[in-house]
Write a structure and sequence with these properties.
binds flavin mononucleotide, 7 helices
């Protein structure tokens, strides 16, 4: 599929069929994620790939899925056959930027590049999922310390949220998309 078609088709999907994701598809999607750009090629972003039903149910519970379902939203995390927990390691960037090809160790980061890079990685995942005939979504998790401890993620690693992956069960669009497109975001020549 062309890049423009992928961009057009991509939606955050919040309901999945029980069908498993084929291992070769998952591997290609992970490979796409690892080829995303990173500041200084630091590559300080990572994923925890979860397929065990027990762990996925635990994450759904931690995210308060039953409360959302009671309010009329679809069961999301518990239905997705794969969870990819998006992580960033600021220390990898701090070390990389001390190397000789960088001007000097950055004391005050003007921009946390690890967040920018995690966004790039996530977009690669989302688009690769569509290319594979799958769907993906991102859920922000309020209880990040709970998720961190559930998965044994070390304290120096920042957990950013969960990307869900699987075969789409619904074409239903998220309610926020009704907001339409915000005008005036492209500034030409000057802000
Ligand atoms: C950083 C980020 C956080 C998001 N967090 C959530 C979330 O916690 N729950 C949710 O339902 N959607 C979440 N979304 C999905 C957005 O609501 C969605 O991308 C937006 O409404 C546009 O819809 P589309 O991606 O289907 O085009 C998040 C998206 C991003 C990029």
């Amino acid at each position: 599929m062309s890049l423009y078609s992928l961009l057009k088709r991509r939606r955050m999907v919040r309901e999945y069929q029980p069908q498993q994701v084929e291992p070769e598809k998952l591997e290609r999607i992970l490979e796409a994620a690892l080829s995303s750009p990173s500041a200084g090629h630091s590559q300080g972003t990572s994923l925890v790939v979860l397929q065990s039903s027990e762990t996925r149910q635990a994450i759904a519970h931690l995210a308060g899925e039953s409360d959302w379902v009671a309010r009329g939203y679809p069961a999301w995390l518990s239905t997705a056959p794969v969870h990819l927990v998006l992580c960033a390691e600021p220390e990898v960037y701090r070390q990389r930027y001390k190397e000789s090809d960088k001007e000097s160790a950055i004391k005050q980061w003007p921009v946390p590049y690890w967040h920018v890079d995690a966004g790039c990685l996530m977009m690669a995942l989302l688009l690769a999922a569509v290319e594979e005939g799958l769907a993906a979504g991102f859920q922000g998790i309020q209880n990040l310390p709970g998720l961190q401890s559930l998965l044994g993620i070390p304290p120096e690693v920042e957990v950013l949220g969960v990307v869900t992956l699987g075969y789409s069960q619904s074409q239903r669009r998220g309610h926020s998309t009704g907001r339409g497109r915000r005008p005036g975001r492209i500034h030409r020549d000057r802000w």
